[in-house]
Amino acid sequence: MIEWLSAGLLIVGAFFFFAGTVGLLRFPDVYSRLHALAKADNLGLGCVLLALAIQADSLAAALKLLLIWPLVLAASAGIGFAIARRARALGIQPWQKEDAR
Amino acid sequence: MSFAFDLLLALALLWSGWRTLTTPRLDQAIVLFIAFGLLMALGWARLSAPDIGLAEAAIGAGLTGALLLDAYGALRQRTEQP
Amino acid sequence: MSTLALGVALFLLANLVVALVAAARGPTPADRMLTALLFGSTGTAVMVLLAASGGVAPLIDVALVLALLAAIGGIAFAKRAWHAEGNDHD
Description:
Oligomer: heterotrimer
Largest interface: B-C, 46 and 46 residues
Radius of gyration of chain B: 15 Å
Helix content of chain B: over 70%
Structural class of chain B: mainly alpha
Shape of chain C: flat
Largest sheet of chain B: none
Distance between the termini of chain C: 45 Å
Number of domains of chain C: 1
Number of strands of chain B: 0
Order of helices and strands of chain C: HHH
Strand content of chain C: under 5%
Number of helices of chain C: 3
Number of strands of chain C: 0
Structural class of chain C: mainly alpha
Strand content of chain B: under 5%
Distance between the termini of chain B: 56 Å
Radius of gyration of chain C: 16 Å
Order of helices and strands of chain B: HHH
């Protein structure tokens, strides 16, 4: 049971990482790329960490694995805020649909 | 599967190292250097040397990358204000 | 189980390589830096998966350090290195 749950979570995490990479490569401007990167990737990392934590040997190892996730969440929130504010201060306009026509 | 992982890692290391050395633009070289350091840390992890991987991740990818970015910013500022 | 972990690690490494090739010819400096941040989070996941598949527990510490220092790189880029796009826009 635990094995299957862990395998499913690993595959879901891999899918979210794939979505984040595709978003980074295909989205039109800095803000939307930041959006793809900061959310999809961290969700994928959370799934992978949870999958490995529920089959860890000891409670300490599982807690250490799960400790990585809040750290990465806080870090990526800070980076996303800093980069988006800098991009706005530099005058980069968000992508509009009219530009694509 | 393990062999495929090692082969892909080795190819990525060689390619990113080559691009880091030959690219003409500084900011691109710095980003490629950070990526190279991260891949190198993965390589040390694959060689089951976690202590060297730790040093590579902390010094190679993290601190040197941040210092190089800072130096690049200072350089840009100096050249823009004559 | 360790085979599946290694398979997922291989898939994530393939993702990283694709993003690296795109970063080498990326359009603007910010996008290249975003690729470096992608390397931070995906590299953390690959490191944790390697720790699980190989049974090398200290690699989890390496993953923690990777996650922390990718953040430092990103903040350094946003605060210090990213000035006006200048001559190298587009």
